[in-house]
Each structure stands twice: as structure tokens, then as C-alpha cells.
Amino acid sequence: MRRKKKLKKPVASFIILTNIIFWPLFCVVGAVKLLGYPTWLFDTVRCLSAWSSTFAFAILFPRIYPGQRFIHFVKQKFKNKLSLSVIVLIVMIQTAIFIMILFHIMNNYEETSIFTLSSWGMLSFYFVKTLLSGPLGEELGWRGFALLELQKKYSPLIASIIIGFWWGMWHLPIWLTTGFMGMDLIKYSFFFMLTIIATTIIMTVFYTINQNLIIPIIIHQLFNFFIGSINGNLIDLIMYNAILYSAVAVLLILINPKKVLYKIQSAK
């Protein structure tokens, strides 16, 4: 059988196809919500839409890496031994950010509860739902492929900014369903993009140190889980996260600029 022709612009093709798959699925999510279908169906379709990047990467894989097997590629992304110190540091940083935001909300919140989750059962369910409808479906394509592919040409910082920007723009349909308009939508979009890019830089630093896809999955999961578990004004929450995650990103660059500012020789 003739080998398929290799794509000239694999990352661009990946980003385009990811959006082509995501938009129709997101419209289905909206239709399921508007028509009042059961919650489980809404959650299922929403979860599928979050996996659009994985679907796109799987479809393009034969033309991105001709002759390789998709399953083997995926296994390689998880084969390296996880560093306990890296995981502990990630958890400590994100928990500290969560606590700082929590205390700020507590001092300015007038409602009966600052949490969206009221029981251990709800907490566990939300944790699993968040994992399935975000980190597990997104990281293989965005970090496991696109980020590392760009690092063959650009420095980790530039690659992070590029992927962070397009990863953020992929969320555009979600912005339009927040109910924000005018200046509120502009503020939300700006802080959202700042948070996404800063988070991508943090992922890149720790993923470079410990090249196992579990690392960006953990960072992504903790971000989504923590921000979703706090009640409060969404614009304020995303603004606080933008400021604090950006501060961490800058600090990581200053501490070890070689991990971020300079092009690595090979990205596997």
C-alpha cells in the first residue's frame, strides 16, 4: 500500500481540523441544553466536544508521522517515570493560588457558600467529570503533539505562546455562551487568554523537566477543578487566575531561563 504524503504544516492542519470538529459538536451541546434533554446526555456530548483535538490528531496522524502507529505514539507519551518532586511542586503551586483566591473571595463574598460543591460525593463526581471533559481529551493533541512539534522550530517560550494563543481561541464558542457583552466580554476574553498562555508556559516548563503527559494533564485538571469549585464573579475569578498564573510563569522563566528561552535541539 502506498504511504500517505506527509503534511507540510502539521500544526496548522491540526489546529484547523480541531476547530472544524469542535464547532459542530459544541452546537450539538447547545441544542441538547436548549431542548431540555437529560443532564447525562448533555455531559456526554460536552465531553466528546472536549476531545476534538484528540480526534483531529488521530485523523491526521498517518500524514504527520507516516509509518508510525498511533497507539505506540500515545504510549510513548506516558512511558517516562513520573517525578514525585515535580508533581508535589505543581500541586503546591496551584493549591497556593487556589487558597489565595479563596481568601480573597471570602473577604468579599456575601452569599451563603463560597463553594459550588456541597458534599464529598459531588466533589468526587465533579473531579472525574472535569478530568474527562478537559485534560484527558485535550492534552495529547495540544501538548503531546503541537507544543513539542513547534519546539523543533521555536524556543519553548515562543512555542508556548503560539499554542497558548490557539488553544485559547479554540475556546471562543464558550466565551460567547458566558452571557457577557461589551466591556465585560472584552475583559473576560483578555484575562482568559492571559491565563491560558501563562498556564501553557507553566506546563511547558514542567513537561520539559518530566516528559510524561501526566504532567500537563495534572496542571490542566487542577486549574479547571479549582476554578470550577469556587462561587463568585466569573470575570473576577479569571482575572485573579490570570494575575497569579502569569506571576508563576514569569518566576519560572527567571529561575531557569534555559528551560524556556532557548530552542531545544530535539523534541520527541
TrEMBL record:
<feature type="domain" description="CAAX prenyl protease 2/Lysostaphin resistance protein A-like">
    <location>
        <begin position="125"/>
        <end position="226"/>
    </location>
</feature>
<feature type="transmembrane region" description="Helical">
    <location>
        <begin position="117"/>
        <end position="136"/>
    </location>
</feature>
<feature type="transmembrane region" description="Helical">
    <location>
        <begin position="12"/>
        <end position="34"/>
    </location>
</feature>
<feature type="transmembrane region" description="Helical">
    <location>
        <begin position="237"/>
        <end position="255"/>
    </location>
</feature>
<keyword id="KW-0645">Protease</keyword>
<keyword id="KW-1133">Transmembrane helix</keyword>
<dbReference type="Pfam" id="PF02517">
    <property type="entry name" value="Rce1-like"/>
</dbReference>
<feature type="transmembrane region" description="Helical">
    <location>
        <begin position="157"/>
        <end position="176"/>
    </location>
</feature>
<feature type="transmembrane region" description="Helical">
    <location>
        <begin position="40"/>
        <end position="61"/>
    </location>
</feature>
<feature type="transmembrane region" description="Helical">
    <location>
        <begin position="188"/>
        <end position="206"/>
    </location>
</feature>
<feature type="transmembrane region" description="Helical">
    <location>
        <begin position="82"/>
        <end position="105"/>
    </location>
</feature>
<keyword id="KW-0812">Transmembrane</keyword>
<keyword id="KW-0482">Metalloprotease</keyword>
<dbReference type="InterPro" id="IPR042150">
    <property type="entry name" value="MmRce1-like"/>
</dbReference>
<keyword id="KW-0472">Membrane</keyword>
<keyword id="KW-0378">Hydrolase</keyword>
<feature type="transmembrane region" description="Helical">
    <location>
        <begin position="213"/>
        <end position="231"/>
    </location>
</feature>
<protein>
    <submittedName>
        <fullName>CPBP family intramembrane metalloprotease</fullName>
        <ecNumber>3.4.-.-</ecNumber>
    </submittedName>
</protein>
<dbReference type="GO" id="GO:0008237">
    <property type="term" value="F:metallopeptidase activity"/>
</dbReference>
<dbReference type="InterPro" id="IPR003675">
    <property type="entry name" value="Rce1/LyrA-like_dom"/>
</dbReference>
